[in-house]
Amino acid sequence: MTSFYIDSADREVARPLLSSGVFAGLTTNPTLLQTAGVANQDIAALVGWATAAGARTVFVQAWGADAEALEASGRAIREFGPNTVVKVPATRDGLQVTARLESAAIPVLVTAVYAASQVLPAMAAGAHFIAPYLGRMNDAGRNGYAEIATMQRVIEASGSELKILVA
After folding, report:
1. Which of these, 72, 68, 73, 70, lies nearest to 90 by C-alpha position?
2. CA atoms within 13 A on the CB side of 157
3. Using one digit for the tens of pLDDT, what is the confidence trace for 10-48?
4. pLDDT of residue 1
5. Cβ atoms of residues 127 and 146 within 8 Å
6. What is the DSSP string of 109-122?
7. What whole-number distance in Å separates Cα of residue 69 and Cα of residue 160?
């Protein structure tokens, strides 16, 4: 099943798109939040607004300098609502936090994925989603399309239910 998400924290941008019924939800990251003037303490209100506006899923990136801080912010993010998915970076700490959050039934998207070799650790940690950065792979001179196709083949070959959310 194909789903589309709005990559923005700007309500004026997202409102008409969410109301169209075409988009499954909203994805955010620290840069998008900052650009839209949404502080960490305002994220819960954004998630509530997006849900009321029609978002079935809202992705919010955890923050923190180490695994413990990432996990704490991830758990706090999930408190914003049952449709919230926690985003963590594809780092050692991020994968450790993914396993902890997923074991607590908190869905996670592993973000900043650049290589098919990152799929297996994300699957092993129990992630629901991965977000490969197509544009950045292509900008670096790599064939991002081929890399993402390889990621999909790895997922299918393993029988995993991991979903790719191309960024």
Report:
1. 70
2. 9
3. 999 999 999 999 999 999 999 999 999 999 999 999 999
4. 73
5. no
6. EEEEE-SGGGHHHH
7. 29
Q: Which of 35, 25, 19 is nearest to 60 (CA)?
A: 25
Count of other CB atoms within 10 angstroms of residue 49: 17
Q: How confident is the model at residue 2 (pLDDT cuts 50, 70, 90)?
A: confident
The enclosing H or E element of 49 equals helix 43-52
Paired strand residues for 26: 6, 58
State the distance between the two ends of the chain, measured CA to CA, in whole angstroms.
17
Closest Cα partner for 31 from 144, 133, 156? 133
pLDDT of residue 77: 97
Q: Which residues are known to be catalytic?
A: 87
In angstroms, rounded to a whole number, what is the distance separating the alpha carbons of residues 146 and 164?
Answer: 14
Residue found by looking up tokens 């990152």 in the block: 118
Distance between CA atoms of residues 126 and 11, nearest Å: 31
- Global confidence as pTM: 0.95
For residue 85, which of 108, 64, 55 has the smallest C-alpha distance?
Answer: 108
Six-digit token pair at 102?
């997923």
